[in-house]
Structures are given as C-alpha cells and as structure tokens.
Amino acid sequence: MTKSLNQRDLEALSAFLDGQLPQKDTRELEARLENEAELRQALEDLRWTRHVLHMAPQIKRPRSFTLTPEMVGEKFFIPRGFT
After folding, report:
1. pLDDT digits over 19-74, tens only?
2. According to the 3-state scheme, what is the secondary structure of the chain?
C-alpha cells in the first residue's frame, strides 16, 4: 500500500470485498477503481491477503484461553489519580 491511500480508502475497499459497502459508495468506488491504478493494486493486495488467509490450515487451539475468576485472582488497588 502506498502513502496516497488513506485509512478511509482501505476501509472502503475492505467493505467492498465483504459486500458491505452501501450501493452509492460502491458505485463511487468502482468509478475510482477504473481511474486509479494505485487503488486497484490495493484491492488486489487485499484480495490476495484474503486468499492466503483462507488457504492457511485450520489449527485446533490446544485449550480454551478464557480466564476463570480463579485464574484471575484478587483485584489490585489502583489509586484514584491513575484512573
């Protein structure tokens, strides 16, 4: 990704890929994609990343990582000035 693409552009591309971008925004983004090579490249990069993640093997977690109250232990005191 390059510097001229901002966070809003990246979020729009992600929503576009997920089919979550509103229709009006989709049309605007598609028009920009026709004219902006950098935006097209960012979309392809996101598509590739998505593909790689879907192809990664699913590994079963060794255990639950949820902490029980017993595992957490006692709460400690935080002075008022630090909250």
Report:
1. 999 999 999 999 999 999 999 999 999 999 999 999 999 988 888 888 887 777 76
2. CCCCCCHHHHHHHHHHHCCCCCHHHHHHHHHHHHHCHHHHHHHHHHHHHHHHHHHCCCCCCCCCCCCCHHHHCCCCCCCHHHC
Two structure tokens written together for 55: 């192809």
The CA–CA distances, whole Å, from 17 to 4, 5, 20, 51 equal 20, 17, 8, 12
Nearest to residue 42, comparing CAs of 55, 29, 28? 29
How many CA atoms are closer than 13 Å to the CA of 42, on its beta-carbon side? Answer: 23
Torsion of CA 51, 56, 62, 67, to 10 degrees: -20
